[in-house]
Amino acid sequence: MQHKVLLLNPQHSFMIQDNETILEAAIRAGVSLNYGCSSGNCGLCKAQVFEGEVEEIKPHEYVIPEAEKLQNYILTCVCSAKQNLVIDAPVANAAGDIPVQNISVKVRKVEQMSSQVFKLLVQTPRTKRLRFLAGQHVEVNIPQIGTSKISIASCPCEDRLIEFHLRVSDEDPVSMQVANKMHHGDSIGLQGPFGDFVFDENANRPIVLFAFDTGFGAIKSLLEHITAQEQELPIHLVWMSCGKDGLYMHNLCRSWEDAFDAFTYDGVML
Description:
alpha+beta
């Protein structure tokens, strides 16, 4: 059974299933609620319930002060909804709302998408997920190899599985390591997020997005976040590359045209 959760200040709404927490439902819907550990230990996801009833479905160590309990404060990372809810919870809408984090992640997949472009998929620990806004980037650190600033190519709704697109270059030792020597289970470090190329959540107008080459990664993150919202805004994507190989996810973009009535796409080879 589904219930609706309405957030105050600013207003957002999303649906929640019986078997998921309020935080999990918000992340899935692309709503950037504030949180830290996501496992009931830090209290950063604390919110106040104004209407409706919740139930705790996960254990937690953080203790809400008695005075706040009387004001209906809960932890969104451990509570689910028993009925429709109206709550007040902090939401990250700007780049400055999310702190820089340092996380060690594990490589889950390395996939060659064209002759020079690779997709790197990594997974964060269950108790320390990466908080970021669509369009931001991180600094990837491979021990004894080097560091590289790379845009996140996945939606914030997939906060444990982080995707990156890398063009292999002799001048970038990180890309060379990913393409030639990286394996499932290897550890790498992430620091971030950085950057203010993020979506204006208050926007209510047609959107035109331009991407060049692997700059498509940040655009992909933005598109997946925007299309997860309840409002359906007209979106036009122009993706440019210096050759056919540069449009390495051309079929994905074409599938978005089929899936979303308000989405159009032009792939341009220069």
